[in-house]
Structures are given as C-alpha cells and as structure tokens.
Amino acid sequence: MRAAIRRGPAIVVDECEIPPPGQGQVRVRTHHCGICGSDLHAIHHFESFIDYGRRAGLLTGRIDPGRDVVLGHEFCAEIVEFGPGTERALKEGAMVGAFAVNFDEKGAEGVGWSNHYPGGYAEYMVLTESMLVPVTNGCPSERAALAEPMAVAIHAVNKADHQDSAYMVVGCGPIGLAIIAELKARGLGPVVAVDYVAERRAVAERLGADLLVDPAVGDPHDHWAGLDVPYGPVVYPRAQSRARRAVLFECVGVPGMLNRLIDAAPRNAQIIVAGVCMAPDSIEPSLAINKELEIKFSMAFSADEFRQSMHRICEGELDVSPLISRIVGLDELPATFDELLTAPRSAKVLVDPRR
Amino acid sequence: MRAAIRRGPAIVVDECEIPPPGQGQVRVRTHHCGICGSDLHAIHHFESFIDYGRRAGLLTGRIDPGRDVVLGHEFCAEIVEFGPGTERALKEGAMVGAFAVNFDEKGAEGVGWSNHYPGGYAEYMVLTESMLVPVTNGCPSERAALAEPMAVAIHAVNKADHQDSAYMVVGCGPIGLAIIAELKARGLGPVVAVDYVAERRAVAERLGADLLVDPAVGDPHDHWAGLDVPYGPVVYPRAQSRARRAVLFECVGVPGMLNRLIDAAPRNAQIIVAGVCMAPDSIEPSLAINKELEIKFSMAFSADEFRQSMHRICEGELDVSPLISRIVGLDELPATFDELLTAPRSAKVLVDPRR
Asked: Would the pLDDT of B237 be above 80?
C-alpha cells in the first residue's frame, strides 16, 4: 500500500507492507488523519522524543528511530476486514476512530508510533477491535478525525481550575485552538488568545475567543487587571473580593516559553503545559515560588475522554470545522511538513490517503 | 539595643536603633526567634533574593541590600509598650507571635525583611497591633516561635492531594521536618523521609515518618511499588485498582533537585516545591509532560493558616518539640549561620536575644 513514511529526518512517500489483522484485530481503510505537533517533533527530534518516552515508561520509547515509521494517530477510518477472534459488533463499512494502542501476543504497542503498526499516513491500518470508537450520527470523517486532538484539549481543560477563572491560551496552533474551542463550548471565559500569526488568531476568533492578542504588537499580560485578575505587587491586607484566578495554557512548546509565563503570570496562576518542549529548559524556581504558581503538565487523554470527544463531535456539541485548514493527499505531505515545521500559518491539516 | 545584623554577606553582632512604636504599633521584647532557610539565603544570595521578590511583587523586593538588615521573622515576643492609637486588647507582658508585616503611613513593610523594621534577631521589635496573634494556654515561647515555620508546612500540606496518597519528603531540614509533623498530625501516610544526615532522619523518625531513607545508601524511589504507587512503564489497559498517588515534597532547594524528582517520580505524581532554589534551574519538560506531573510551588501561608498553626501548637495538637535542636544567644548567631550554611546537622535553631 502507499504511505508517507518517516525515514530518517524526512517524510518519504513509498510503498509499505500492511500487516494482516491478527487475533482480535481489524483492517481499516484510512479516510482522514490529522498532522499532530508530535508528528512534527518526530522529524528532527525523534531520538530525544523516543528517549523521553523510554524514560517516562511510554510505548513510544520502544520505537527504533533507524527504521521506517508510518506516523499518524489522529484518524478516522472505515472497517474493511475482520481478523480472527473478533466480535464484529460493528459491521464492514462502519466508520471508526480508535484509542491508538494495539494489543497482540507481544503486549501493547502504539498505532502510528511503531515500527510494526502503521499509522494513518497510510492507505490501511490494523487496529485492535476493542479500542474502536464508532462514528455516529453521520458525522463527516474529517470532523471525526478531530476526536483525538479534541480529546487532548478536553483533557487539558479538565486539569484546569474553573472556579471563576480567566483564561489565556498562549499559542494558537491546533492544540491551543482546540482548547479555545473546548473552553467556549463549556461556556467558560474570558479567553485571551495569543499568537503571532493572523490566520491562527482569525480561527481563534471564529471559535469564540474573547480577546485576540498579537504579542508583536501588545503585551497579552497587560490585560489581566481588566479581567479582574489581581496583577502586580502584593497588596496588603490581602483580601481581594471578586478576584478571578488566571489559568494559562502553554501551547507553544519551545525552550524559554515556560519561564516567560512564570515571569509574566499573575500570582497564584495555574499554568497548564500542553505544548511539548523537546529540549531541557531553564526556569527560575524562585519566581515560581514567590508567586506560588501551579504547573500542570498535560498529555493525551483517558479512553473515556476520547469517547466523550467523539460523541460530542458527532452530536454537533463541539463544532470543530473552524479548526480544519485543509485536506491534502499523501503526495503533498512532505511539502506540508516543511511548511508546518518552518512557517506554520495553518490550524489542523488532514491527510486523505485515498486521494 | 543589641542585634545580630546582616551587614554585607555576614552576620555581625552590634548595637542598633529601635524605632519608636508608631500609630497602631507596639514594642515587643523578643524571647525566641527561629533561623529560617530564607535567612540563610539572605547571606550569600541577598541580591537575587531581593530581585526575585521585586519581580514577584513582594515586600522583600524593596530592601536595600547595601544597608543593614536585622533578620528574623519566626518569633515569639512579649508586649512591653503600646504606641498611639492602639486598642490594647492584649496587655503588657502578653506573649505574642505575629504575621510579620507592619503598616505605617508609607504602607506595608516586612518585619525582619526591612531596612527599617528589625526582626527577631534583636532584643526588641516594633509590630503592628492588628497583626499580633496571642500565645495561649501557657505555651512555652520557644514552641510558640515555631508557629511560623509550622504555618509554612500547613500551607504546603494544604496544597497536596490527600485522596489515598503516599508521601515522600525530600530533605529533612526544618521545613521538611515540619511537613512530616503536619502530615502525621493529620494521620496521613505512609510518609517516606529522605535525608543524608542521620541526625535529621532521627528527628523525622521521632515525628512519625514511616520509612527513613539515606539516599547515599538506597534509592528512595525503590519504595514506590511497595507503597502501592504504580511505578515504571505504563501498563495497558490502564485500569489500576487501589493505586495510591505519589505526593513529593521538595524541601532541598538546590539546582538540579527538581529535575531529579521529575526524572524519578512516578507518573501522575504531585510535586510540592517548598525548598527555595535561588538560581535558575534546568528541567526536562518532556519528561514532566510524558509523566503528566503536577508541580505546585508553595511559599508562606495565609493569616488564617498562621492563626491555626499557633492555636494547634498552644493547644498541644501539634508537638513541635522534636523540631527544636537548640537555643543560642545573639553572640552565637554568626557561628550558627556558618554551621547551617556549610554542614547543617540541626533541625530548628532558635535565638534568644535575652541571653
């Protein structure tokens, strides 16, 4: 089958083998698969990506970066073949997403994070039947493919304190935008959206962000006081009536960003780190302790959050259509990766391997 | 009056002026005052200490490090004189602690963190009457002086997740030990106490720590699995029945320590940072995100936590006596600072300026 393969620090379109569906597995045809920031990290930072996974005990730690990997874990696909020992509650032709972990006689292994199980940048995948989540309500495949990144956003938003908080989303790439979508779908706010890129701020606006800030033009932290968040020197006595708490989502993931937030954040703020910084980073703990900040690192989601995400998208409770920038074929993936790695202006780009 | 003065990077015993009690203020005679880790930082790191305070908007940011400062903010003292405009609900001779902030016509200023208001390393202090907290129940002054560091511990423990958690206290200096005392006073555990120094581990044992680890001999993180905390690679499917969450208290505050905990901690652990690291520090965010760690920086306490701390010590609900290593006079302070800065073996050392 055709696939876009991570081979060395490049994406190469080539033929590859698809494993036959094993015990309890199904073969699916990929309709749409999103490009994730982690897929981008896998181009130039794959060794450290794997090393961090290994040190944290994750399945990604088992990948051999010297061998081919077909990336892609944000997919919507059609069941085309059942392997042995399957229950077949869903039928051939059914559309599904999946919590992207496969089980076989060797144990658990990621889908799209594996030398063995190709991900969604390929015409076909093998998935474990028990991990499938059906697409319902006739939801278009390209929207259902957003169930994965929206689950990441739901998970990050679940970690936040929502007792009269004011929100700042720093970085309006796909995850920052998905977090804005989730906050506004829950009726939460005010939400300040921060990004240098006008196209991404425009998507944030369509998703309902209350305030858009281009940090090249103004300091986003100038807005805290106007949002009833105490900002600046401690005022004694400390009683502050009707004060909002600041919740910041760090969705950039480059070195230095976390400490810029530690330096600029209001006292007692909560920082949810959803952007993955691939290098060691320097922070000033004395600033964080003097402000009593709280930093929660957020990654992935639970199986339940994934099911919720798919359900809410399919039922129209979460309108993810503003997040979708465009859909490309496999042949366009190398150039798309180049754009997203160098000068990203898009939100979510999906690949349709049928094209 | 006599005082131990921070003058340049040294403690010097000398005479100094005591300001007259102003509007709403009282003059007190210091009975006991504890040496805090922050006081130690004020010897060699005073400039950055002040700079971090300034950047975080704290009162400490206003100190001029080139001028004398009489340190000491963990005190118990006797009221000896009332200034104008005082309410005098307490009487002369009453023993008090205080939330160490003074108010005057210029605003708020720290006590013991000021070029103007001497702290407890002096025979006398001036305090704002409304900030006084009375010592009750005939509680000995040296124990009441522990209300301040115990409030720091209460505050740190209040930040932790206590839904079936297992605790590790890394560093058994005064704050680590106070945290152990508070955890055990609340009936929480198991508590693993970690320190290189045998004397400090012995105090941790007296305070009820369930497991003592000398990291020169064994890896404290080897104990997680035995405490029902999932440790090591992620196991799929993730359902883990009756699993405890790990809560780690970082009470060391030297560069590198936080990332050692990020590297060694179980997945989903909560790290409460109570040790103040005075230098920029390097962390590996990808490890923290892959493990979904939560880092809460904890400093000081609320006025209510301070009152609670004093009350519980006076009522005998918190036995702080194991924390007190010894009581010294002003003349012994320079040598005591030297010991605590170079090879600390003590828990809390108090100064009694009446000696």
From this structure: no
Q: In angstroms, rounded to a whole number, what is the distance separating the alpha carbons of residues A46 and A60? A: 10
Residues of chain B with CATH 3.90.180.10: 2-145+301-351
Q: Which tens digits make up the pLDDT trace of B282-320?
A: 999 999 999 999 999 999 999 999 999 999 999 999 999
Question: Is residue B70 very low, low, confident or very high in pLDDT (cuts 50, 70, 90)?
Answer: very high
* Structural domain B160-297, CATH architecture: 3-Layer(aba) Sandwich (3.40)
- The pLDDT value recorded for residue A236 is 79
Q: Is the peptide bond before B190 cis (omega within 30 degrees of 0)?
A: yes
| CATH hierarchy code of domain B2-145+301-351 | 3.90.180.10
A171-217, pLDDT tens digit by residue? 999 999 999 999 999 999 999 999 999 999 999 999 999 999 999 99
Q: Kindly state whether A282 is in contact with chain B, defined as any CB-CB distance less than 8 angstroms.
A: yes
Are the beta carbons of A9 and A46 closer than 8 angstroms? Answer: yes
Query: Which regions of chain B carry the CATH code 3.40.50.720?
Result: 160-297
DSSP for A51-102 reads HHHHHTT-GGGG--TTS-B----EEEEEEEEE-TT---SS-TT-EEEE-SEE
Token pair of A352 as six digits: 């349709």
The ipTM of this complex is 0.96
Question: Which chain A residue's Cα is nearest to B293?
Answer: A297
* Multiple choice CATH, A2-148+301-351, 3.60.40.10, 3.40.50.300, 3.90.180.10, 3.60.9.10: 3.90.180.10
What is the distance of C-alpha B222 from the center of its chain?
28
Taking CB atoms and an 8 Å cutoff, what residues of chain B touch A296?
A: 292, 294-295
Task: Answer yes or no: do B58 and A234 touch at CB < 8 A.
Answer: yes
Backbone angles phi, psi at A269, to 5 degrees: -70, 160
Q: What's the gap in Å between the CA of A255 and the closest CA on chain B?
A: 9
Cβ within 8 Å of residue B152, ≥6 positions away: B175, B178, B274, B298, B299, B300, B301
